[in-house]
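Reply to thread "Modeling small-molecule complexes from scratch"

Following up on the discussion above, here's a worked example others can learn from. I took a protein sequence and the SMILES for NAP and predicted the complex. Inputs first:
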Amino acid sequence: MTIPYRPFGRTGVQVSALALGAMNLGSPGNPSHEDGVGIVHRALDAGINIVDTADVYSQGESEVIVGKALVGRRDDVFVATKFHGRMGDDVNRFGNSRRWIARAVEASLTRLRTDHIDLYQVHRPEEDTDFDETLGALSDLAHQGKIRYIGTSTFPASRIVEGQWIAEKRNRERVVAEQPPYSILARGIEAEVLPVAQRYGLAVIPWSPLAGGWLTGRYRFGGPQPQSSRADRQPGRFDVDSADNADKLAAVEALALLAEEAGLTLIELALGFVLAHPAVTSPIIGPRTLAQLEQQLGAASTPLPPDVLDAIDKIVPPGTTLSARDTGYVPPALQDASLRRRPGS
Ligand SMILES: NC(=O)c1ccc[n+]([C@@H]2O[C@H](COP(=O)([O-])OP(=O)(O)OC[C@H]3O[C@@H](n4cnc5c(N)ncnc54)[C@H](OP(=O)(O)O)[C@@H]3O)[C@@H](O)[C@H]2O)c1
């Protein structure tokens, strides 16, 4: 089993076709630093060379574990982290402002035990902050050698385009990568985000390729509520008896049958689907344990045949999202409310 490498957008950097996500490293995911270091080392030994974390994951603990794991191995790993999420009670300890970015990057560099970040990502767009303010601050960090590349996460297509235009018009460093939610159950980005990413030659590293666990096969129709750290933390989201989840459970039943007929595990089917989109560079896998990692490593060398991809389209049509709550996008109901908002309301 060898993991292939793919070009990271148009940067010239080669990254493994699976990226290791570190969101589960640290409490409340897996509190053991020893386990976390072991997961990172096993991934690197298997050929993974891109690791994704964020300052907010376990409020910095995930970056600390990644930093520990990379001692002596830093040079050959493409380290991606993020800023934007709240990192304290003070009114300014979050966001996309130059002021916060200057502080957030120093804290991430210290926790990661490194002098540079390969990909520094804006975790979410910020309505009240001029995107040029953010790109200007990030461009300065690139010129100072503190970061190599700029990325975004969960940006709508219009914001991705805006970022490219700002870079061109105001001579800023360009955003080279987008990190969107993408899985068989969350295909919304196929309509606009992925075509736009392709048009601008962006790397695409999707998050939650197993829809947070739905596509592992552990949540089944009529089955018992399985033991899961996520289900404990977000009970409604993974409730197998909830009417809100019925369409996901029905899709999972059909997908499990399809996987069995194709001689694949459901995990291989799910990761193979994300890997197959021509706009995708590397899905970010999010194992909480070493055993979960082992079950995902084989997917990068198990491409899905066209007839299996066609059969997936029949179960969940292109562009459809059954799992909106898992995507980080604002649900349409909230969008409507914000459209109705008037000054002062
Ligand atoms: N940019 C963003 O906004 C954003 C958002 C989310 C994630 N991410 C990134 O994407 C990475 C992956 O996201 P994700 O963790 O949501 O990915 P995911 O692969 O969709 O879900 C991971 C979860 O699936 C379950 N799982 C994984 N392997 C399993 C196996 N072999 N058997 C049974 N269950 C298994 C685990 O649930 P249990 O823990 O319940 O066992 C695990 O926590 C993160 O680490 C992070 O780097 C980014």
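What I'd highlight from this example: The longest helix spans residues 246-262. Residues 240 and 246 are 8 Å apart (CA to CA). Questions welcome below.
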